[in-house]
Amino acid sequence: AKCAHVGSGTKVVDLCAGLGGPARYLAHCYGAFVTGVELTPARVAGAAELTQLVGLSSQVQIVEGNVTALPLPDVSQDAVVSQEALFHVPDLARALSEAHRVLRPGGRIAFTDWIVHEPLSVADERLLWDGMAAATLINIDRHAELLRRAGFEIESIKDETDEWGVILAERLRMYQNLRGEAEQAGAPAGHDDFYRSYVLFVGLVQRKIMGGARFAAIKPA
Cβ-count burial of 129 within 10 angstroms (0-12 exposed, 13-18 middle, 19+ buried)? Predict the structure, then answer.
C-alpha cells in the first residue's frame, strides 16, 4: 500500500485477487476503491460473499477476468497491486503491459512475487507446476526487465527471501498439522501433489534457490 501510494479514494486494481482478502484490506484500512481481477469463477463468487458479509461491497468488487486482458478501460486506475500471485501467470509480460495500460500517468504498480535465485531442475519445475501451477519462475533481474519493457520506471526492488523463509516454515508446520488432524478424523488430507510441491517449494526457499521480492514502479507522466 505504501509503495503504491494507496489512500482514501484511490482506485486500485488487484491482479489475481483470489478471495479478495488484500482488496478488502486496502478498502477497510486505507479507504481505497478496489477492483480485483480473478480467473477462477468459484473464487469470484466466494469473494463477493465475503465482501458482502463485511459490508465492503460499495468499495470492493472482484470480477472474473484474465490479467493478460484486463476488463478495465485505459488510464482508469491510480494503482495496480498483486500479492504473491503473478508467478501463476504464464505471460507476465502481457500482464504488466495491461497494468501499464489501465494506469493513469503517474500511477504506480506495487507487487510481491516469488522469484528464483538459481536455475531449477526440470523435475522441480514440473512438480511446482503440477502442484502449485507455478507458470513463470524468473529472477529479480527478469522481473525488472519486464517492468521496463512494459513502460514503467522502477522505484524500488527489495529481496525479501530471508523474511519470507521464516513465514513459509511456519505455514508449512501449520499445514502439516491440519493434514494430520484431517487424517486422524478420517477425512481427506488434501491434494497430494500440492502438498509435495509445497514441501519442495519451502525447501527451495530455505536453501535460497527460490525466494521472494517486492517491486514498485511508476508509469511516467
Answer: middle
